[in-house]
Design goal:
mainly alpha; 7 helices
């Protein structure tokens, strides 16, 4: 006897209850037919009921406030300015790598996605994402080496907090 062959069930039973006397489960919700026969009025009503996710949440606020605190209490901009004035080769190379990373990112977002209308640009240009990732990691290493004499072992933590603060701030914009 095959599972699902008797009883007129359209699909075979894949799970059986562990105990025969188990409490009955809630009945399954009715599903639209496979052909997408649910009306468009139903789908638009469901979409209207869903609230858009709030851009500002506790997670975003935490990283933004942490970034502001690091900037203020560690004199972040003053330290970066002094490092630039000291002609740090590591800081200059990190800045160039970060510029390359941001240029590729803006090329993907602004030109390919918005101007050309290519939404799946990573499928058409598969090398862009790894290049952007590699240049960002190299820039982060250069910035850590450049600022290590100032903050020592705190440097990676402070730069990570600044990075997360900037990412969360940008996510608020759109």
């Amino acid at each position: 006897m095959e599972a699902g062959a008797s009883g007129g069930e359209p699909l075979p039973r894949l799970r059986r209850p562990l105990r025969r006397g188990a409490e009955p489960r809630d009945p399954p919700l009715p599903q639209p037919p496979w052909g997408g026969g649910g009306g468009t009025a139903e789908s638009t009503a469901v979409e209207k009921k869903r609230k858009p996710l709030s851009r500002l949440n506790i997670h975003s606020a935490f990283w933004i406030l942490a970034s502001i605190a690091v900037t203020y209490y560690f004199d972040f901009f003053k330290t970066v300015k002094e490092t630039v004035q000291a002609d740090s080769w590591w800081f200059a190379s990190g800045s160039c790598l970060l510029a390359v990373c941001l240029s590729v990112a803006f090329y993907c977002i602004l030109y390919l996605e918005w101007y050309c209308g290519i939404e799946d640009y990573d499928a058409q240009y598969p090398a862009l994402i790894p290049i952007t990732t590699a240049t960002f990691i190299a820039a982060a290493i250069c910035f850590n080496i450049a600022l290590w004499p100032v903050w020592s072992f705190m440097t990676p933590l402070l730069l990570f907090i600044q990075f997360m603060g900037v990412v969360m701030l940008v996510s608020l914009l759109g």
